[in-house]
Amino acid sequence: MAKAKAKSSPKKKVAAAPRKRASAKAKKPAVTKAAAKPAAIAPPSSGDRLTFNHAMIYAKDVSRSLGFYRDLLGFKVVDEFQHDGILLYARLRAPGGDGTIALHLASPGSSITSDGVRLYFEIRDVDGFCRKLQAKGLYIPQTPRMMPWGWRHVYINDPDGHEISLYWAGEMRMQKTVMQAAKDVEKAPLAKGR
After folding, report:
1. What is the pLDDT of residues 43-75, one digit of tens each?
2. pTM of the full predicted structure?
3. How far is CA 51 from the centre of its chain?
4. Which domain holds residue 57?
């Protein structure tokens, strides 16, 4: 018995050994997860295929445009560049995806019109999102409506007049023809009340 008591200290070490084994077992899934994680976040290899990186939007005042895209639309700032206290560039990520835009200070006197170019941002509840924008003071000249191609749609402008489309394509996404569905919606009793 005396030996058993004397070995009580080693028993503590023995008792610690199962904890080490248990923690080693607990670490195995973490190591497996860690090994799998880099593959999951690694950018896709496009090889010889062209990929889209971002859209550049030229602005007369990047700080003002940043306020619009970040504070009103909910974009997250990824990167900024200032020179002499003036914000020259900001890169932003869409709140619901990996798409990015970049705001870049336009050269003095240069035109920033973008005829023929429109930014499209998709959100399921277009109407609710527009109400939130209006509550924050954004003027929206026309309420969202169903378009002939079957998308719920509204146009807004950023501070520099760049046209933006807020829309929801829903089931009509990637349909070869949606004109009949759009006509059916326009004929619906609720559509006539608009």
Report:
1. 556 678 888 889 999 999 999 999 999 999 999
2. 0.66
3. 17
4. 52-111
